[in-house]
């Protein structure tokens, strides 16, 4: 067999790893979008580095856009095979891909207005909402810890990766020349003792392992300190300085963690009486999907649900849906917490919240996840004194 890497190699996003067997069968592991790489991002997303129509099967580790975001383009370019994933991944992927297509449509519309004034030709989005919808009938769900036949040369099994709901490490048994080779792909690996999810599963011995290494040379802070750190920033910004705490956050995973922590502070009467806005329609949908898959929750959360039936809700929380409601937040100068996507601050409504609030020293932009260095979030984290939004 031959394995070629077409993303997430020497960078974090754009996960795409192509296995080609001697027979010519091609199995693609993930089909992610490059994100946060500045002016190079668009060109990287236009070219796969392989022919979409020649790929026979796709195995998807999880729903995050840097792992799933180019599947509609793959289908648009000729892929017709099955897509294997967990049930929760299918549910999340459906809403994430449609949201991605909507963002592209709106961004391209704005860009083309400027290009028209400059006499430049129009550009097209990577894919349409219809392309995103065409992905879903191709998806076939597989439960954790069950071997599933792909064809007479390959079997797949998923084990829980503990990264987001439905996330999985992928395990393949590949048969060539009478020999079976075991290959495992980690996907993105979650932490042990996550507040919401089960810990990553132990998985079988493999002959070859492809593993993510985003934080390979770093030690994470103890997750137990997260609530107190969040409480400190809320008090410093909203209580002491009477400002706004603006938090760029990924709609899937990190937003639910933040809501869980805020709910915990509320239950302990430590959450100041300031409004909390989640300004992302996708975050609302994603939170509903997470709630619908309690099989992915850890034991502690399943116990909590017995006394608190919604650990992601609390007094003062409002989900913002319409654009007008989103804009209205900027006209409200009272202390508040705003959680909005995207986590790297490179797309979505978070950009206008940062643009409207970053110049006021009373406010805080609180980064809570990984950001590519060239993304807006990455530039802010690296101390840029001036940014263009």
Shape call: globular
Any low-confidence stretches, pLDDT <50, length ≥5? none
What percentage of the residues does DSSP assign to strands (E)? 15-25%
Q: Helix and strand string, N-terminal first? A: EEEHEHHEHHEEEEEEHEHEHHEHEHEH
What kind of assembly state do the chains in view correspond to?
single chain
Averaged pLDDT, please? 93
What's the alpha carbon Rg, rounded to whole Å? 21 Å
Helical region count? 12
How is the largest sheet built, in terms of strand order?
1-2-3-4-5-6
**Percent in helix:** 25-40%
- Report the strand count: 16
Class based on secondary structure composition and strand pairing: alpha/beta
Rounded to the nearest angstrom, the distance between the terminal CA atoms is 45 Å
| Largest β sheet strand count, sense and barrel closure | 6 strands, mixed
How would you characterize this protein structure?
By secondary structure, the protein is an alpha/beta fold. Helix content is 32%, strand content 19%. The protein has twelve helices and 16 strands. The chain has helices spanning 41-46, 65-68, 71-76, 87-117, 129-135, 226-240, 254-267, 281-291, 299-305, 323-331, 350-357, 376-381; strands spanning 2-5, 17-20, 26-29, 57-59, 82-85, 139-141, 148-151, 154-160, 168-176, 179-185, 208-210, 244-248, 276-279, 317-320, 336-340, 364-365. The strands form three sheets. It has a six-stranded mixed sheet with strand order 1-2-3-4-5-6. Strands 7-8-9-10-11 form a five-stranded mixed sheet, with no helix packed on it. A five-stranded parallel sheet has the order 14-13-15-12-16, sandwiched between helices. A hairpin with a 2-residue loop joins strand 7 and strand 8 (154-160). Helix 4 (87-117) runs antiparallel to helix 5, helix 4 (87-117) packs antiparallel against helix 8 (281-291) and helix 6 packs across helix 7. The radius of gyration is 21 Å and the shape is globular. The termini are far apart. The model has no long low-confidence stretch (mean pLDDT 93).
């Amino acid at each position: 067999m031959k394995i070629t890497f077409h993303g997430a190699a020497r960078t974090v996003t754009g996960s795409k790893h192509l296995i080609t067997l001697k027979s010519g069968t091609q199995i693609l592991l993930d089909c992610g979008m490059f994100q946060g790489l500045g002016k190079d991002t668009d060109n990287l997303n236009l070219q796969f580095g392989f022919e979409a129509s020649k790929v026979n099967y796709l195995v998807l580790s999880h729903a995050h856009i840097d792992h799933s975001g180019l599947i509609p383009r793959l289908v648009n370019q000729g892929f017709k095979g099955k897509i294997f994933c967990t049930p929760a991944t299918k549910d999340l992927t459906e809403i994430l891909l449609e949201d991605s297509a909507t963002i592209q449509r709106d961004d391209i519309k704005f860009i083309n207005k400027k290009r028209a004034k400059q006499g430049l030709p129009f550009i097209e989005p990577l894919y349409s909402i219809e392309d995103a919808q065409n992905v879903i009938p191709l998806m076939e769900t597989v439960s954790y810890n069950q071997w599933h036949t792909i064809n007479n040369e390959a079997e797949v099994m998923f084990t829980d990766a503990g990264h987001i709901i439905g996330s999985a490490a992928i395990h393949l048994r590949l048969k060539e020349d009478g020999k079976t080779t075991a290959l495992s792909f980690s996907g993105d690996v979650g932490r042990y003792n996550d507040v919401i999810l089960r810990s990553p599963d132990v998985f079988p011995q493999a002959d070859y392992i492809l593993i993510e290494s985003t934080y390979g040379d770093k030690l994470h802070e103890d997750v137990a300190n997260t609530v107190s750190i969040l409480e400190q920033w809320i008090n410093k910004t909203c209580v002491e300085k009477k400002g706004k705490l603006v938090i760029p956050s990924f709609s899937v995973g990190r937003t639910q963690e933040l809501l869980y922590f805020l709910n915990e502070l509320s239950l302990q009467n430590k959450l100041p009486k300031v409004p909390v806005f989640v300004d992302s329609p996708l975050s609302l949908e994603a939170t509903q999907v997470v709630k619908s898959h309690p099989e992915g929750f850890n034991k502690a959360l399943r116990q909590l649900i017995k006394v608190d039936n919604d650990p992601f809700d609390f007094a003062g929380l409002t989900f913002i849906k319409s654009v007008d409601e989103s804009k209205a937040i900027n006209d409200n100068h009272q202390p508040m917490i705003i959680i909005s996507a995207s986590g790297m601050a490179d797309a979505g409504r978070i950009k206008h919240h940062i643009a409207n609030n970053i110049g006021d020293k009373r406010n805080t932009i609180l980064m809570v996840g990984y950001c590519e260095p060239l993304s807006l979030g990455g530039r802010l984290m690296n101390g840029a004194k001036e940014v263009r939004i």
